[in-house]
Structure formats: C-alpha cells, structure tokens
Amino acid sequence: MTALNDELTRTEQALERVREEHGERNAQYVTLLNKLAYLHVRRGDPEFALPLAQQAVGLDRRLDEAPRRATLLNNLAVIQHQLGQTNDALLSYQEALDLDRQLLGEDHPQYATHLNNLAGLHQEMGMLDDARTFLEQALEIDRTQLGEDHPQYAAHLNNLATLLLQTGRLDEALPLMEQAVELGKQTLGPKDPKYASRLNNLAQLHVEAGRLADAAPLFEEALHVEAESLGTDHPEVGVILCNYARLQLRRGKMPEAVALADQAHDLFSSRLGEDHPHTQSTLRFLDKLRVEIPAG
Predict the structure, then answer these.
(1) Above 60 in pLDDT, residue 294?
(2) Which of 89, 194, 196, 276 could, after both became Cys, cross-link 77 (CB 3.0–4.6 A)?
C-alpha cells in the first residue's frame, strides 16, 4: 500500500500545481482528477473518489471534450456502482456507451469494456439475461479485435463464467473460469489482485458443485494475494472473507465461519459504512450463524 499512497500524494501535488498555474478548466486538470479518483478506488475508498469523478465529468462537459468523456463517465459509473447508487450508475454507463457508439463504433475494445461493466450492474440488479447478452457481445469484440490471449478477453471471460455460476450452469462455467484463471496467471502474474479475484470465483464454483476441499486452498491463496497487494483492510479482502466463511459453514466449522464473517463485517463497516449493502448482508449472515451455533 506504500507505493499506492505515494502515488496518491504525487497526484494530489500535481493536481494542485496545475490548478495554481492554469486553473481548473483545462484537460490536464481533468485527467489528474480522474487519476486521483481511480487511485482512491484502488485504495478501497470509493466515497473519496466519487466527488472527484463527478467534478472531472462536469469540467469535461464545459470543455466539450466528448472523446474523453466516455471514459470519465464509465469511471464515475464504476464508483457509483460500488457505492450502491444503482440508478445513477446505470445512467452514467448508458451515456458512456452512447458516446462510444457515436465516436468509436460498436466493434471497439473500449465499447466492449463499457458493455462488460454495464453487464455487471445488470447482474447485480437481477437482470441476468441482459447481462449475459452484454457479456457475450463484449467477448466477441475482444476475440475479434484483441485475440483470446489478451488480458481484456480473459477478464470478460471470467465475468461470463461468474454469471453462469450465478445461474447454476456449473458445467458451462467451469472450463471458462479455469481458462480465465490460467490466462490471468500468465498475463497479470500470480500477485495481481485481479488474479486473486478469479481464484475467489473459481473457489465459489467448487463450493456450489460440492467440491469443498478444492475450494479452501483457492480462498486462502486469494486472501493472501489480496492482502499483500491491496492491504488487509481493503473491501475486496472482505468479500473473500465472506465467501470463505460460507465455505466453512458448509463444512460445519461454525467457529471459523463466525470469525471470518466478523472480520469481514468490521472491515466493511469501517471502510464502507454501516449502511453499505456489503455491511448489511454480512451482518445478516452473522445473525444467521449465531442462531445456528448451539448454546453452551
């Protein structure tokens, strides 16, 4: 996290220099605002990122820089999505896609990226057929324009596999997810947090298929990579802790499940707030666990 904090400090200093020398209504200032927002997202602080991303989009509208605005809107939507602001995120994603379509065309890799992100939002909203359509369209663009060995293709393949997992299509999901994990290890490296996320997804698939012994080491490796790369208090660590807790519940290891869920709840509460969906869902899970623990 030290390197990330150093980059945050350098970006803040550069932003202030540009503001003092040129004011806020210029492209360099907008670019630095967007970068600062992104760094706060990487740090696990979307609430700090939101006003920065909103300011970047607002300034860009006044500069009339449409080619860059699709990226700024997509980044704003990602933050809104993380904060549970579903309707706002949907509007931002749709505007970004409209700009992509007008300026780049529907076969551009950036259009595929924004389709993928919109699919994730629809998936959380329970609109699974729409999400699958968007993901399959994104993958076809990736395959045609970038090739199947490209990191973007692997990322979107992982997301389609996760959707298939959610809909119970385990046999379809498994080869896609294993391919995404292997591509991630090759293209990102075994210490990248995105690789850890894919390990987590593969572990969840094994849990759903009843292969509990196969899932445990994947969760443990994912937790190690996330903690090393993002820090032990990052929300993504909390997500894996919750999933590991559910595995321990399936294995009948109640004390371990409670300890993991408690750790995740404390993390979400301190980093995202008591009202965030992650915090609330983990609290409900803890309540369920405590009811099931035998007295004495």
Answers:
(1) no
(2) 89
Residue 293 confidence class, pLDDT cut points 50, 70, 90:
low
Q: Are 163 and 120 in contact (CB under 8 A)?
A: no
CA distance 286 to 56: 39
Of 93, 157, 104, nearest to 127 (Cα)?
93
Amino acid at 28: Q
Cβ–Cβ contacts within 10 Å for residue 264, how many? 27
- Does this model's pTM top 0.85? My answer is no
Share the mean pLDDT of the chain: 92
Rounded Cα distance, 72 and 15, in Å = 17
Q: What is the 3-state secondary structure (H, E, C) of 185-198?
A: HHHCCCCCHHHHHH
Structural domains of the chain sorted by starting position, each given as residue range(s) with its CATH number in brackets: 1-103 (1.25.40.10)
Give the chain's largest Cα–Cα span. Answer: 68
Q: Average of pLDDT values for 38-60? A: 92
Question: What is the mean predicted confidence (pLDDT) over 113-128?
Answer: 93
Q: Indicate the residue type of 11.
A: T
Tokens of 287: 């309540």
Quote the CA–CA distance of 86 and 80 in Å, as a whole number. 7
> Residue 1 has what pLDDT?
58
User: What is the C-alpha separation between 57 and 95, in angstroms, rounded?
Assistant: 12
- Signed CA dihedral, 252, 254, 259, 260: sign only: positive
